[in-house]
Amino acid sequence: MAGINELAKAADVKEEQVKAVFQAVATLAADERVTIKRFGSFQFKTKAAHAGINPKTKEPIQIPEKTTLKFTAAKPKKP
User: Fold this and answer.
1) CATH dotted code for 33-79
2) What is the CA radius of gyration of the chain?
3) What is the reported pLDDT for 7?
4) Across-strand partners of 22?
């Protein structure tokens, strides 16, 4: 795997920006919220198992519990 310096050069960004991305991913992996000012926040949410209907066969099915990544947009800045 390439180092932070190589990734920064390849993406034409500063090393601090690459480190910030890795820190955000590590924070999400620790099941915490990641907030980017004036943009929004990311957080894992667990959706409970529930009943559903197969749209093709119209048969009832059980949809299992799953974990998804939720994004919440930041509120727009007032002029």
Assistant:
1) 4.10.520.10
2) 19
3) 84
4) none
Domain segments of the chain as ranges: 1-32, 33-79
Three-state SS letters, the chain: CCCHHHHHHHHCCCHHHHHHHHHHHHHHHCCCCEEECCCEEEEEEEECCEEEECCCCCCEEEECCEEEEEEEECCCCCC
Q: CB atoms < 10 A from the CB of 42, how many?
A: 18
Separation CA 11–CA 14 (nearest Å): 9
Q: Which stretches of the chain drop beneath a pLDDT of 50?
A: 1
What residues contact 33, with CB distance under 8 A and at least 6 apart? 27, 41, 42, 43
CA distances from 70 to 9, 27, 61, 64 (A): 30, 14, 25, 18
